[in-house]
Amino acid sequence: MSRFMKLARNWKCWSQCFLIKWNFKIRKTRVARKALSKRMIRRLNYATPQRLYHTRRKDAANSALDGSWTSLYKRASVYPIDMKDYWKEIFEMQSKPDDRPVAQQGHVWNVVAVFRSEEIRSGLRDAGGTAPGVDKLLANEVLRWSLEAVAQLFNLMLVLETPTSRLSLTRLAIVPKVDEPATPADYRSIAVSSVLQRVMHKVLEKRVRNMLTFSSLQVAFQRKDGCLEASILLHTTLRMVHDEARPIAMAFLDISKAFDSVSHDTILRNARRYGLPPPLIRYLSRLYHDSLTRWDDATINCRRGCDKGILCLPRCL
């Protein structure tokens, strides 16, 4: 017990070893441009795809293939003034309490088994080419470290049932969903955490996926072609009703900002329902309660929503 207390006392100091290297700047307010000359449009069409290639190569390739690169310059022409207030209101809104009883049938303790260097190496290779967090660490850089030491760090986080404040700090990136965004709702928020934390959650995600049994009708967050299976199920249902001349009632529900508005209590309740062990539940509870997101000069405490920078929970639940 004394050794555990010593680890807990020193944990706060150790957790500060991960430096914040990301240069957060105050974003300049953009205003709507008036009619641009053909010469200026050519310059923008030349520069914008190059900037996109350096930040998101996949999107740059898609824009070159589908011809949308000719309108990329329009995305930067208008920037909503109330963008920050809009997203802060969504993130900082308090989660709705969810005290429904949980029908639990034992715990799957193998999910919190000791981390091995082989699991870490596999997770880092899968994370190759992904964006860095605030520490600017890349997966190929961590692969040159002692993976035994990284595994011990992850084991310590599970033993103490708490993440580090630096690794949990995410940076927020706003990506347009349409060619010409005009309102804050036309953008998508993506929170990027440290590659170390993402790899840890990927390992936990893989364990949960291999050890827990989900409904056969669940197509989201599963290793299968969800769109194909859902389309076949819908087509088969409609064909059967048509052939047998039977009545049918169907409803399509589209939840706006589903991942950004889900209650943390509901996420943790589902984790208990699937049998995740109490140490992991307490780790996840602290992760959601204490994690912060930096967006330019603002620090946001996400009180609800399934943070896209934290990969474990949406995949598991």
From TrEMBL:
<protein>
    <recommendedName>
        <fullName>Reverse transcriptase domain-containing protein</fullName>
    </recommendedName>
</protein>
<dbReference type="InterPro" id="IPR043502">
    <property type="entry name" value="DNA/RNA_pol_sf"/>
</dbReference>
<dbReference type="Pfam" id="PF00078">
    <property type="entry name" value="RVT_1"/>
</dbReference>
<dbReference type="InterPro" id="IPR000477">
    <property type="entry name" value="RT_dom"/>
</dbReference>
<feature type="domain" description="Reverse transcriptase">
    <location>
        <begin position="156"/>
        <end position="317"/>
    </location>
</feature>
